[in-house]
Predict the 3D structure of the following.
Amino acid sequence: MSVELTADFVRTAIGTRHPNFKICEDLAYKLEVHAKGLKPDSLINKRRPSESEKIREYRNDIYVPITRKPVGKVINSLSKIRRSQDWNIQFDADSVPKSIKSDETLESYCEYNYPTFTSVTNWAFDELLIRSLIDANSVCAVVLKKLPESANEYVKPEAEIFGSKQILSYSPGEYYALLSSDVSVYRSGNNRSYEGKVYYIVTDTQIARYEERSGAGLEQTLIYDHNFGELPVFKVGGVYFDRKNNDIIQESRIAPMVPFLDEAVREYSDLQAEIVQHIHSEKYIYTNTECPICRGSGVTNDKDANGHFKKCATCNGTGNITNVSPYGEYVISPGRKTDEYQLPMPPFGYIQKSTDIAKLQDERVRNHIYDGLSAINMEFLAATPLNQSGTAKEVDRDELNTFVNSVAEDIVKVLDNVYYFICQYRYSVVVTDKEKRDKMLPVIAVPEKFDLLNTSVLVNDIQTAKNANVNPVLIKYMEIELARKKYNAEPRIAYEVECMFELDPLYGYGQSDKMTMLSNGGITEKDYVISCNISQFVQRAFKEEKNFDMKTFDERKKIISGYADEIIKENSVKETLKTDIENQMNGNQSNPDERPR
């Protein structure tokens, strides 16, 4: 039985929270602190053992969100999923009924005219990816923000993410009460503008929008009978965390980073205090100048309420005075008798401090960040060199691909739902047959080939392979991958490099090896010439041959072979001429009578 949106039901739905809201919000906050650079009060406000209140306050005042950068790197790397070779959203143009105009098709709306983001794909990687990684218990709802102004105009549904704090109450399969990120602007009796909250209540048959008005009242500004028989609301994806109150609680796929990032924040705050206390120079001086007020006693003649002499304010109870700078000079008073010890010369100096603790803390902070990235198999994003002994490890590509693939599956699952409900909203009236509507939906394959590793990782892998004497063919393909990565924004250069590798018949062999094979008859002269000149041959081909990059391998090989023939022919002419000259010279030397007189 469908929920009826009565006034009492709306007030109750909006005014209550579901039973799992606290644990969902806590899970989101643990990641939000690092992803958004919020100040983690629970981590830095607590006083350390033997720490003064002044230092604790100082740490709190100078907090810097150092963990925001590694989380940002993870998100940026995962956003490259859309750049995968096998990322594709395929629409079938033949499945679109003729009654739908070309500029009103599902593809046209979702890929070129989608509100705010231009395309649903842009929305997925600009908003969905980030918010799903921070708050896995968020939900995505396909909603309407306004109704068409005319009867022949299509509705414009939009996907909106509602975080754990925005999910008010719900009953699985029946309804969701959601707090929107939008605000309503209204005027009160004094004609001043105010911002009010905006709510959505979504059922399996209707969607309604409510806006807050003066006096905390609610006005229903939109109601639409979609009659889907199902809720256009679904979770954004994550991993199983717990089951409470007959509902599944999810955890972000990057949640394993949290313990290490927390430690990095905590210890970095300690490092800041350590720097202040043990790095800055502090000066001490010797003095024997007697305080003129207390005459060296350190106290005055006045007494406090307990009958004790008050401490001298001029010398602060030391009995001696000196000029004190704002950099904190230490006053070390000599004995009262002049023969107790001799004052050193000069009578001042600087305290020598050890920086070992600060260096250790700095290293520990870096290691915590590295371990956090390593927890999700993305340690290659850390600043720590991959070949650093005792810290780094080889990148496990299988584990990395498994992790990234799971994130890609979450995104595709959400996109499938978004396209499905947008299609139902827009075309359920024009195309009444649901099977025909479903055929209009795009096919989105979960990508399996990801280009996430940075060039330093690839260079390290190539160097390791060469040192291990790996087959040159394998190294060739590793270097092709490096070229594609290095020149991703300049595909022409990447392709030129790839052609050099592919068309070089002696790739991987050094010059001495080539010479040995040539002298032993192991290779032809042409292969030797091509290998020695492959770089200039390929560059020449790209300049002289139209659409060289579009030709087949055999066609490209034939062109390069022609260039080699030119050099071989030229060398042959030179060799013949050289031989003739040598013969002529040898002949002249053997017949002195024939020399010119």
About this structure: Residues 18 and 169 are 5 Å apart (CA to CA).
